[in-house]
């Protein structure tokens, strides 16, 4: 028996009202028809039947009755004029009613607020006009209405954000099935006349409890969960957890402190050495950003880089990193390269190449001594643009290393069209190296792939001799990791460079 069918059977027998409609959503989402008219015809019949079965007419009467008594103005306020659904205000009032009922003795512990949003509205408005955008919203709203029926108040609260307060009769599987059906409805292309508009939604869920007071807090939680879900890709959803609020407020704190960090000169760079695995020669350094906050001490770039990217401060910070690294590299021996991490947000800036050129001129660093580390996952997003940018950097003589290689699922054809010099194997692959050589097929394949694309291969995160020797056997060219050297201050890096160069000359 399929999961959905099992779920339907369970819920129909077990709980009644909400459960029956939800189970129905789960089953029908698998043969959902995107044609709005056909959809209406088919859903209308079954929803009516279900509503009768479940006594959903009571809920309908409740809303309709309320509307009759309300003034015309109040009704307008409660309705979203684009979709005909509830407005945010309307949802607020409906949720207040639910809470009031709960306060007067009825439990509210089975209501969830589900917030859903899709990204494409802005693009549709910009390219096809707001009329097309509104038509898309209307189709999506109709799809949701026919799914939801009277199971709970449904609203368009803002832009492309739809919210429903849903009663879940039984267990979390019902919630799961309902959200999946709702997101499914919001992730099927919308056809209007001859144009098909692709849409993909994400969802966030927060529990609506008696004593929560207003919609505002619960909606904030559901939206936070939705933002978290978005990081896992299209169509995903998550349930709110208090940890998300802690993370969000920590990120907010980071964002406000980051804007002062530059003025307070709290940033510095650490330089981690890179070596030729066969000759043992020092070949270069990777510049790694360090932030020492005046009260909190060291804060990891793994925590603050994404915050800087989201708020745009990465432009200023990234330019500072490039300038500092180039000026420092100019003081090192000429055979040593400097690798600098650059984020996509920096690459998206049309002034990136000009800024880079002027930094190279000011620092008097030859472009051939600079290498930019660009993470693999970023290449997928805008391949055509990346191809142009890589070519330009290539013509300037700046080298490119594909960072975290093997983690971004790049398309091989796309990869082969890009001109880059190095691939950097992610630490996660190095960690999985095994004495049993048969098991190291993955890393050997990556190394061979890199070589066949004409690139040199560097592995990062090497922590012991065994890993180094396995990588050597597999044909890896360069290495970086705590086993060879931890990130150093510039004066330490300079001293290491001078010693290495003296040893080489003596040999
Ligand atoms: P990444 O580019 O993959 O950098 C490698 C990270 O692994 C660094 O962490 C480095 O200190 C650490 N590492 C190196 N060798 C070893 C080892 O043997 N064992 C272990 N456990 N770790 C090792 P870090 O410095 O905390 O940087 C984290 C990430 O932050 C970097 O990952 C990079 O994505 C980002 N980042 C750092 N500096 C910058 C920067 O200036 N600009 C941008 N855009 N991102 C940066
Ligand atoms: Ca890197
Ligand atoms: Ca990495």
Report on the structure:
The protein is α/β, with parallel strands linked by helices and 507 residues long. The protein folds into three domains: 3-65; 80-240, Alpha-Beta Plaits (2-Layer Sandwich); 258-506, EAL domain (TIM Barrel, Alpha-Beta Barrel), CATH 3.20.20.450. The chain has 22 helices and 16 strands. The strands form three sheets. It has an eight-stranded mixed beta barrel with strand order 8-9-11-12-13-14-15-16, surrounded by four helices. Helix 10 packs across helix 11 and helix 13 (314-329) packs parallel to helix 15. The longest helix is centred in the middle third of the chain and has 20 residues, at 242-261. The N and C termini lie far apart (74 Å). It binds ligand C2E and calcium ion (2 copies).
